[in-house]
TrEMBL record:
Gene3D superfamilies: Potassium Channel Kv1.1, Chain A. Belongs to the NPH3 family. This is NPH3 domain-containing protein. The keyword Metal-binding does not apply.
Amino acid sequence: MMWESQSDSAARHKYGDGILTSNKPAVKTEGFLQRGHSWYVATDIPSDFLVQIGEANFHLHKYPLISRSGKLSRVIYESREPDVNKIVMNDIPGGFEAFELAAKFCYGIAVDLTAGNISGLRCAAEYLEMTEDLEEGNLIFKTEAFLSYVVLSSWRDSIVVLKSCEKLSPWSENLQIVRRCSESIAWKACANPKGIKWSYTGRSSSKMSSPRWNSNNNSNDMMKDTSPSRNQLVPPDWWFEDVSILRIDHFVRVITAIKVAPALVTELEKRVGMQFEQATLSDLLIPCYNKGDTMMYDVDLVLRLLEHFLVQEQTESCSPKRQSFSEKHLGCNLNAKARVARLVDSYLTEVSRDRNLSLTKFQVLAEALPESARTCDDGLYRAIDSYLKAHPTLSEHERKRLCRVMDCQKLSIDACMHAAQNERLPLRVVVQVLFAEQKLQNKTERLLEDGEIQYLDS
């Protein structure tokens, strides 16, 4: 999809369609030359400074860099070494790709700004301290201008930039790129549908194409509509597909800012929940934005996403197509639930440290998965133990209730040994653990006698 404001063309014209150059080229050059993992400046002046980023090596010159980068200026002038000629910058946001663009800017080489590279370059400019104190119209200023006047006026560009921010934490958060893109997307998603016209993009005429934004409702000012569905109403969920590709925490930032009907938000949560298996622990650690809620993380949202995933899995497993699949495909379905179970247990361990997390919320999330999803309850035991540490005032009844979510028969020998000596567990649970441990030991001894397990000589 593409959403563009009427100011897009003017903004792109003002900023040269994203072609960026510095004011004063410090070294005359025709560009950069790449040989393998090394970059060289096409000039007769020998290189006197090496920048290493991972396997990438940039053979550059000190003066163009120090004249525009406060960080590199300090490294070179404030170093105890008399002649610094090398720096390693593996922690630069955006990696070597962003640094290459920043270095070209220092040399006065034209840089093509796009939605795909602007966030990395903006973060790299901040890292390199390319401020107005060093040169008027330095890289921070120019990347900020492109973000503000070009990216944030475009639906498509805002989505692309927000997606690219996933690899730029915490820089993209601290520089408010995530917040600004989220608010831009939210504003466009909940705007008056009368301001959206569907324009034909040249694809199959049977498919509805991209929306274009017109902030003026005057029909005389509307952009010419070339869509084959000229009179078709804009569907209320036109933005779902684009927003649902975002990482879960960024998706939450968007829907938190969107003021739409709860039914639409629920539908969007369903789409994101279907991708639950692909999430990581950091994706799920979403701050709680609800006013009046004292919890650190939005456990309720994670529970809803998990429920949508489980409903989808159940629907697929009951469908005729799924039933006709081979055992291999059915095994994949079970593996998906097992991966999600491990993810949920890790999430519970993390959020259990929050003293404001209620026992009920912990229990509901732990029991949301079917018993078949967990073949081992070690992860669940770690989460329970962590919760007990963070909530030492729980009554005996509450501790028993907490431990009911765990099946002692699914604990490993190591977990049983730890639990048997855990004073935080209720006595009844410790007895169950000892019984489970004894059964495991007996089973191991039988397998040894039958020759199914052999000790390896050290």
